[in-house]
Q: What sequence folds into this?
């Protein structure tokens, strides 16, 4: 899931702008560390605006019973045009998700004005299983073992142990990528 719809295309075929750098955020939506990492994600989005594409990548951990369902619900929310607001709302309520499970996911959808019945149906029919499974498989392939984990410019940064210094390192990498783009274009 990404925010490309909200900030414009990144495909050079559909736009005269160069492809933006991409920050993949590997996340478990029941993970308290991922909730903490949202502060950094918001700051990065604010700083780089449409010059950086931030993509949520699902990596539900086995220790979080409702993370897999939360990833599926987030995909349904993305289909309804509310990906990041839904993700942020779920991460703000990880304790509630742990206690109430799928009903919390449906209630959060309703509170955000989403079609909650459709979110519930998506959880039952599994229409987003392949997307979640593909994200998780790709994460494993690049060495993701915990969340949050970031990947930008070919570098993987593990935030599961500590968030200290990660935003600064991501900013450094993105600035380098943008400078390289500018040099190539100019």
A:
């Amino acid at each position: 899931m990404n925010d490309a719809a909200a900030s414009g295309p990144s495909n050079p075929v559909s736009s005269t702008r160069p492809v933006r750098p991409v920050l993949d955020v590997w996340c478990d939506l029941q993970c308290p560390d991922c909730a903490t990492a949202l502060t950094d994600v918001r700051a990065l989005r604010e700083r780089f605006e449409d010059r950086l594409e931030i993509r949520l990548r699902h990596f539900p951990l086995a220790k979080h019973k409702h993370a897999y369902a939360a990833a599926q619900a987030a995909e349904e929310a993305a289909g309804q045009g509310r990906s990041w607001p839904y993700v942020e709302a779920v991460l703000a309520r990880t304790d509630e998700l742990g206690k109430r499970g799928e009903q919390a996911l449906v209630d959060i959808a309703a509170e955000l004005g989403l079609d909650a019945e459709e979110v519930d149906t998506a959880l039952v029919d599994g229409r987003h299983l392949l997307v979640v499974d593909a994200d998780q498989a790709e994460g494993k392939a690049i060495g993701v073992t915990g969340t949050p984990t970031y990947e930008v410019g070919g570098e993987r940064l593990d935030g599961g142990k500590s968030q200290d210094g990660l935003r600064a390192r991501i900013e450094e990498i993105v600035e380098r990528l943008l400078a390289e783009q500018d040099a190539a274009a100019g």
